[in-house]
From TrEMBL:
<dbReference type="InterPro" id="IPR008927">
    <property type="entry name" value="6-PGluconate_DH-like_C_sf"/>
</dbReference>
<dbReference type="InterPro" id="IPR028939">
    <property type="entry name" value="P5C_Rdtase_cat_N"/>
</dbReference>
<keyword id="KW-0028">Amino-acid biosynthesis</keyword>
<protein>
    <recommendedName>
        <fullName>Pyrroline-5-carboxylate reductase</fullName>
        <ecNumber>1.5.1.2</ecNumber>
    </recommendedName>
</protein>
<dbReference type="Pfam" id="PF03807">
    <property type="entry name" value="F420_oxidored"/>
</dbReference>
<feature type="domain" description="Pyrroline-5-carboxylate reductase catalytic N-terminal">
    <location>
        <begin position="3"/>
        <end position="96"/>
    </location>
</feature>
<dbReference type="InterPro" id="IPR000304">
    <property type="entry name" value="Pyrroline-COOH_reductase"/>
</dbReference>
<comment type="similarity">
    <text>Belongs to the pyrroline-5-carboxylate reductase family.</text>
</comment>
<comment type="pathway">
    <text>Amino-acid biosynthesis; L-proline biosynthesis; L-proline from L-glutamate 5-semialdehyde: step 1/1.</text>
</comment>
<dbReference type="GO" id="GO:0004735">
    <property type="term" value="F:pyrroline-5-carboxylate reductase activity"/>
</dbReference>
<keyword id="KW-0963">Cytoplasm</keyword>
<keyword id="KW-0560">Oxidoreductase</keyword>
<dbReference type="Pfam" id="PF14748">
    <property type="entry name" value="P5CR_dimer"/>
</dbReference>
<keyword id="KW-0641">Proline biosynthesis</keyword>
<keyword id="KW-0521">NADP</keyword>
<feature type="domain" description="Pyrroline-5-carboxylate reductase dimerisation">
    <location>
        <begin position="159"/>
        <end position="263"/>
    </location>
</feature>
<comment type="function">
    <text>Catalyzes the reduction of 1-pyrroline-5-carboxylate (PCA) to L-proline.</text>
</comment>
């Protein structure tokens, strides 16, 4: 039986616990850490998983998943390092933090796998990108793939691409939510009740996403199928291009990538 510890039970940490339980893991195979006692008690009541401290989590587990905020990583690693058993696999879900940061703070030879998930993990539809550190084996990488497959899709990338992944899919759901928010406001401006506008847009977004996944057609092909000559859609597309929406999205994603790089550098400073 592989025991798994999740350090940090925020939204992503809880979503992973829930996904693992839904995939057939039992509560006695899992533990978690949470610095707020009220939150810890709430999660134990909801999922039946024990809350423990960091050293206990390390001593009991074969896989330790670190799901804390990047700015909280230094004290967590300081607690984790003395208690970590030889061969324990460490999986980082911390945005922007390189595997070298973990390898430098943990016992020599510790296998580390870096993961960039996203919040659709909450509904079992995460997109997670994984990269091995210096000491992670193929079997360990496959174990992380299997673990994350319980909450969505998984892709392997070189670690050099993780900052771009963070900007694109890690932050990506927020861009879609922002767009949906703007479209709902447009519906209200055009005279629709908010609830009706929301239903129209959310279902349209859901359907469009399924078409993208299931058709395997390029987005341009799907967009052109909606864009009739001299019709309503091309009039809207012209306005989007006029206002530089495409360029703004590209610039925004570049900014997110740069911030991911900055977080990694800041955490590496003594």
């Amino acid at each position: 039986m592989t025991r798994i510890a999740v350090l940090g039970a925020g939204k992503i940490g809880e979503a992973l616990l829930a996904g693992l339980l839904a995939a057939g893991r039992t509560p006695d195979e899992l533990v978690f850490t949470e610095r707020h006692p009220e939150r810890a008690a709430e999660l134990t009541a909801r999922h039946g998983v024990a809350a423990v401290d960091v050293p206990t989590a390390a001593e009991r587990s074969d896989i330790v998943v670190v799901a804390v905020k990047p700015q909280d990583i230094v004290p967590v690693l300081a607690e984790l390092a003395p208690a970590l058993r030889e061969g324990t696999l460490v999986v980082s879900l911390c945005a922007g933090l390189p595997t070298s940061l973990f390898e430098g703070a943990l016992p020599a030879g510790t296998p580390v796998v870096r993961v960039m998930p996203n919040t659709p993990m909450l509904v079992g539809e995460a997109m997670s990108a994984i990269s091995p550190g210096t000491h992670a084996t193929e079997d360990q990488l496959a174990a992380v793939e299997k673990l994350l497959a319980s909450v969505g899709r998984v892709v392997r990338v070189p670690e050099s691409q993780q900052d771009a992944v963070t900007a694109l899919s890690g932050s990506g759901p927020a861009y879609f939510f922002f767009l949906v928010e703007a479209m709902i406001d447009a519906g209200i401006l055009l005279g629709l009740p908010r609830a009706v506008a929301a239903d129209l847009i959310v279902q349209s977004a859901f359907g469009a996403a399924r078409m993208l996944r299931e058709s395997n057609d390029h987005p341009v092909i799907l967009r052109e199928a909606v864009t009739s000559p001299a019709g309503t859609t091309i009039a809207a597309i012209r306005e989007l291009e006029k206002h530089g929406v495409r360029a703004a999205l590209i610039a925004a994603i570049e900014a997110a990538r740069d911030r991911s790089v900055e977080l990694g550098r800041a955490a590496a400073r003594p």
